[in-house]
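Please go through the protein record below and see whether the fold suits the sequence. Record follows.
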Amino acid sequence: MIPSELPTRRYAYFVVASLFAVSAFGQADRFLFGLMIEPIKAELGLSDTSMGLLAGFAFAVFYTVLGIPIARWADRGTRRSIIALGLFFWSLMTISCGLAQNLWQMALARVGVGVGEAAGAPPGHSLLMDYFPPERRARVIGLHAMGGSLGLIAALLIGGWVAEHYGWRTAFLAAGLPGLALALLIRLTVREPVRGAFDPPATRVEPASIREVFAFLLRLPSYWHLTLAGSLHSFAGIGAASWNAVFLMRVHGFGIAEAGATLALLNASFSMVAIGISGFIADALGRRDVRWYQWLPALGGILHVPPALAFLLYPDAAVAIWFLPVAAFFGGFWAGPSITMAVSLAKPQMRATASALLLLVMNLIGLGFGPSAVGIMNDALAPRFGDEAVRYSLLLIGVTSLWGCAHNWVAARHLRRDLDAKAA
C-alpha cells in the first residue's frame, strides 16, 4: 500500500471479516476442549483437576507469556503475516489434540494451541486501529470479538454433533483442518496498512522500546483498572464457558450434543449479539461522554449476575436454561468497549503491546485460573456433593464479575484525563 493511501471502506470491512474468521477459529479451537472434557476424561482416565489444568493453564501460560514478544514483533513487523503464521500453527496443534494418547501429549498439544493463538488478537487489534478512525473503532473491535462467539457456537453445535457421532478425536480434526486454508487466505489477501494512518499527523510512529511502553502505560490508571476488570469478568466467564457443558451433563443428564446445542443457541449466540451491539452503543454514548466505555461494561456485569446464578440454582433444567440468554447478553457487554479503550489509550507504535499486556493479565487470571479453579474445586467438593460439586464451583466463581464491575467504575473516573495525557 502506498504510504499516503488510505484503504477504501469496502476493503477495510473485508479485513474485519477476515480477522472475524481468525477470531472464530481461535475461540472454536480454544473452547472445543471444554465440551470434550467428559469423553476425554473417561478415555484417558484423568481427574477434574487435570482437565481443568489442561483447559486453563496448559493453554493460558504460553498464550499470555508469548503474547508480549509476539506483540513487540507486531509493533515493528508485518502484522498480517504474523497472524497467518500463528493461525497455521495453532490449527496444527488443534489437530494434535485429537491425536493425543495420554496426559502429557494432550498437555503439549494444548500448549501449542496457546503458542499459536498468542499471534492472533494483539496484532489483529493493532491492524484494525489503522483501518478505522477513532469514532468507529469500538464497533469494529466488537465485530471482531463477535467472531469469537461465532467460533464458540460452531464448536458447541458442530463439535458436539461430530463428537456424538464420530468421537471426540474427529471433532478436533474437523476444527483444525479449515484453519490451515484460512491462514493462507490471510497471508495472500490482507494488506499491511500505514501505522497511525487515522491518528494526528504529529503522532510519532517510530517503534517504541519496551521500557517506553511500560513507562507510558504505568502513568494511566484507567488502563490498569480496565485490565483488572476484564480479568475478573474473564475469570467468571471463561470458567463457566469451560464447565457449563459438564454441569448440564452431570447435573441435568444432558448428552454431549444436547449440551452443546443448548449452550450454542441459548448462551453463545446471545453473547455474540451483545458483543456486537455493545460496541455500537459504546461509540454512540462515548461521543457524549467517553466514560461510557467503562460504565457500559459495569452495567452489563451487574445485570449479568442474577440470571447466571438462577441458571445454576434452579432445579428444573427445562426452566433453568432460559436464564442463560439473559445472563449471556449482559455478560457480553464488557469485551468490545474495554479492549477498544485499552488499545486506544496507547500510542500507535505501542498498540499491539498494550493489547498483549491486557491479554496477558486478563487471560492469565481468566483463562488460566478460571477453568483450573473450577476443576480443583470440583475434586475438593465431590466427596460431599458428588456430581453436584460442579454447580457450587460455578457459583463461587460467578460472583467475581461484581468485583470486576468496581474496577470498571474506577477506570471510568480516570479515563478522560488519561486520554488527554495520551494526546499530549
Q: What stands out?
A: The chain is about 80% helix and 0% strand. The CA atoms of residues 59 and 308 lie 26 Å apart.
